[in-house]
Specification:
Length: about 325
């Protein structure tokens, strides 16, 4: 049995990329592993947040995770800021990471290029992420392709720490799905579908209704060739639709277009499969929204379970580092 950890930010509405790149893997991995899943609200603070919106989107994201199939009885599901060991361990990781390593992170480069205000937290973000992962003696981290570099950094930091101070942390590895690992924006297939980018037409929210999904997919950018073939370099828009269709129907993206002779058919088939996939998720989500106190209760239990493991790991790290015991 492996130990699994992953996290997602409450930074906007959960989209198809999150589901296909990460959340579906979270659900399937919880059966045979010991899994820990976290709403990483502290990571959302790297950009300025409206307090009311942050509170609402944190709860709503936890409800969405349950709706997609995370079972709080089988997995540990909690909110990052409820377990203060994460921020404490993040300092240890900041002091283990070099300035150059943090500066090379592409997510930092992308987000800092676009932001008016670049916080120190945006720069040290991967050190907090590393601490999320290592506090649970994690073997595997299910994430989308964009997070591979952060998990690689986590591996480097744990190896460095273990070399300096003796065996302390488990060295984790990323688990990235073969299809759907990188769902692109429907309007700009050169950038990934994202929660916080301002591209509502390019991103399909898991809560979009049928008509909205149809409209967004119909308007997706393709090309002028008209041939339904997978070629992500030369046909990024069409290939993105094929990836979505493939991931939603359990096929390889190269095979997903068989029998579809034009872009209209491709878009119709893609919209239909996405709508079918989201229908049961939406109905479970709206049931949970009617009873927020039950979600809050589950999150408190989750935080208690998480804290027990995290505090043991953090004590071990502090001891190995030479911090004076209390
Ligand atoms: P933001 O836009 O605020 O950075 P995000 O949409 O990238 O958010 P995260 O909370 O950062 O979402 O990521 C949650 C998980 O979803 C991560 O494992 C990430 O790799 C995965 N993910 C995010 N975007 C995509 C995408 N477009 N395709 C596939 N996986 C994705
Ligand atoms: N950095 C990730 C979110 C994240 C995460 C984690 C993912 C924070 N902590 C730990 C996996 C494991 C992102 O931007 N998607």
């Amino acid at each position: 049995m492996a130990r699994i950890f992953s996290g997602i930010k409450p930074s906007g509405s959960v989209h198809l990329g999150n589901l296909l790149g990460a959340l579906r893997n979270w659900v399937s991995m919880q059966d045979e592993n010991e899994s820990v899943y976290c709403v990483v609200d502290l990571h959302a603070l790297t950009l300025p947040q409206d307090p009311e919106e942050l509170r609402a989107s944190t709860l709503s994201l936890a409800q969405m995770l349950i709706a997609v199939g995370i079972d709080p009885d089988r997995s540990t599901l909690f909110i990052q800021s409820h377990v203060s060991e994460h921020t404490e361990c993040a300092w240890l990781m900041e002091c283990t990471a070099s300035f150059g390593e943090l500066r090379r992170m592409t997510q930092f480069k992308d987000k800092s290029d676009k932001a008016d205000f670049v916080s120190g937290g945006l720069f040290t973000y991967p050190a907090l992420q590393a601490s999320d992962i290592i506090l649970y003696d994690t073997d595997q981290v299910p994430v989308g392709e964009d997070q591979r570099q952060h998990v690689e950094l986590t591996r480097d930091l744990t190896e460095r720490f273990n070399n300096r101070y003796g065996e302390t942390f488990v060295v984790p590895e990323a688990v990235i799905p073969p299809a759907g690992a990188r769902v692109m924006d429907l309007q700009d297939p050169s950038s990934k579908m994202s929660k916080s980018e301002d591209s509502p037409q390019g991103s399909i929210s898991l809560l979009d209704d049928e008509r909205t999904i149809e409209k967004k997919i119909k308007r997706a950018v393709t090309d002028s060739e008209g041939e339904v073939i997978f070629d992500s370099t030369n046909k990024p828009g069409v290939s993105n639709l094929l990836s979505i269709l493939g991931a939603a129907t359990g096929q390889n993206p190269k095979d997903a277009g068989k029998g579809l002779s034009n872009y209209g058919e491709l878009k119709g088939a893609t919209a239909e499969s996405v709508i079918e996939m989201l229908r049961p998720i939406q109905s479970r989500y709206y049931e949970l929204v009617n009873d927020p106190s039950e979600t809050n209760r589950l999150l408190m239990l989750g935080a208690d379970k998480a804290r027990e493991v995290a505090s043991t790991t953090l004590d071990r790290a502090k001891n190995n580092l030479g911090l004076l015991p209390r």
